[in-house]
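In practice, a research group might receive sequence data for several interacting partners and want a quick structural hypothesis before committing to experiments. The following worked case mirrors that situation: the sequences arrive first, and a predicted assembly follows.
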Amino acid sequence: MPQARIVGIAGSLRKGSYNRALLRAAIECAPEGMTLEELPIDDVPLYNADIDIDGSRPVAVERLKERIRAADGVLLVSPEYSHGVPGVLKNALDWASRKGNGKGSPMAGKPVGIIGASTGGSGTMRGQEQLKLVVAGMLMALFPHGGVVVPRAGDRFDDQLRLSDDKTREFLGKYLDGLLGWVRRFE
Amino acid sequence: MPQARIVGIAGSLRKGSYNRALLRAAIECAPEGMTLEELPIDDVPLYNADIDIDGSRPVAVERLKERIRAADGVLLVSPEYSHGVPGVLKNALDWASRKGNGKGSPMAGKPVGIIGASTGGSGTMRGQEQLKLVVAGMLMALFPHGGVVVPRAGDRFDDQLRLSDDKTREFLGKYLDGLLGWVRRFE
Amino acid sequence: MPQARIVGIAGSLRKGSYNRALLRAAIECAPEGMTLEELPIDDVPLYNADIDIDGSRPVAVERLKERIRAADGVLLVSPEYSHGVPGVLKNALDWASRKGNGKGSPMAGKPVGIIGASTGGSGTMRGQEQLKLVVAGMLMALFPHGGVVVPRAGDRFDDQLRLSDDKTREFLGKYLDGLLGWVRRFE
Amino acid sequence: MPQARIVGIAGSLRKGSYNRALLRAAIECAPEGMTLEELPIDDVPLYNADIDIDGSRPVAVERLKERIRAADGVLLVSPEYSHGVPGVLKNALDWASRKGNGKGSPMAGKPVGIIGASTGGSGTMRGQEQLKLVVAGMLMALFPHGGVVVPRAGDRFDDQLRLSDDKTREFLGKYLDGLLGWVRRFE
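A structural hypothesis for the assembly, expressed as tokens:
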């Protein structure tokens, strides 16, 4: 069976972001058969339909879309801001979900998982609800799962932002096992 | 009674945006007693908590926050993308809703209305649902209203993007009357 | 200033329900100036538009609507089921929000607060999001608040289902103070 | 290939319900390879965890759960009330999604489609958003689709509540083709 290639997108640009750290932990925990790589969105500019035209899109946008198109699945790892999806992440998804260059949406039909970490007690529960509806709106195939919500991230990551909590690491590993099975349904 | 000053924020950067056009129509329809002005977000960069620090915020962000703080209410006029809030708008709200410079969130406690236009049949219904939760998350006071959802905008605006449909214009005027009453409760 | 009369509705029929217990705790904590009373929904039958007609509604429904109409505000205290609003609560709201007997909706324009308790870690966060949209759909005036989400209720209530956790009790008291101020805006 | 057995649940008890009519139309349009049958919920009582115990559940509930368990997929056909899921439907789902009799949830892992009709312009868009989150909360596999929202149902069904609009009928047929393909992924 070939490797399932998953691209992971973190919803925060902050250097010390717990969600970027959670994505790095997921990359370490990825099960045999899954290749998980971070897809950065730092250089994706604000969406503007006036330049969302073949030949006019920013290079960073074309690169983002090609990498998603080439992947077998997507993992979104995001904080919540004001109970919603961070604008930074939604903006990248707004670009990524559009048709172009004679091809359909890179997101449509693609399997997707959603996880997140917060410093407080919510674990990004509310933001994940909105993100679920967004990926459904993009016609992605949402991995059905109770959810990886990581509250009180400050207690679970060490000073080097490595996931030091064994229980969370184990849970994350099982989640990725399940996600791999889900992605394989769509090959 | 003093004028109620409302700032209107459009959720699209596109020049020919029907939502910018809807905001301009609202500015024309604003009832006596209400001053409605557009607050542009074109120059608000992607949110990054590393620079969301007193003395480090981009000028455009500080300006956005001061103008919201000085206003009596906010009107959000937005398309929906993939059933959610455009990243461009959410990104501006992410900046605007944060504390800073020794002051609380400019959004908290502020009355807010939500309207939107679409070229298709949805009229931005689904995106407005997510936006309602975001403004609730920002502790804003949401104007209770059945909603201004303007589907098939192409039939209601003329070539100069002026709202030419009388029924929509009348409905918009009544909505703004109601919003004015709502804002006055919070003075 | 007259007493603000609030009716509280619990979203669970279970005898040992933590949410009924949370409503009882709220009744005990109600600040001076607020009268908070439970409005039971045990006897409200399944909604059927064929009998939602003047002269045909079940007695329990007419009573429910009259008590809400007479109140100055509503407090909803509910578990979440499958990330949503319990059918039992939504069903009562479906009846309560309809026009009838020559009068408008008893819910429209009424101020409302939402709180909830869970045995797990969510504290009903996700269900509250859906409930916020439902009360907005009913044109109620949602009290803007970060939310009373009471996770791990088993640790906070004693064997007699009394709220024994002082911090939660204090938080609840402050919430009700705020709700009272909100309700008074609409008198 | 064996027949895919789908159970359809309508979210309204009203005799003249357009959603029951839409479900009947779907039954007529079901493609070769799909058996679609209505699963009535009229006799499912209000959920009460005190009787959601092996040996204590109402007969109608046990029957509902067994029929869902035996099915290969579920089709939910529902109006929206106050932008949310009708209590009547959510109540049936609350029962159906629980473990019991030594078995897991009948809903978990099951593929599901969501459609709906309204007399007004919304076509149940907002209610479908909440229902999507509920089925995700039940760990169902949501069929990714732009949605069957049938606005202005009064113009599309005749006096005998038969779907008379050819375009809607054709769209519905294509939707069911897609749903069949989705269900087959999970056999």
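Before designing any experiment, note the following. The first helix of chain B runs from residue 18 to 29. The first strand of chain B starts at residue 4 and ends at 10.
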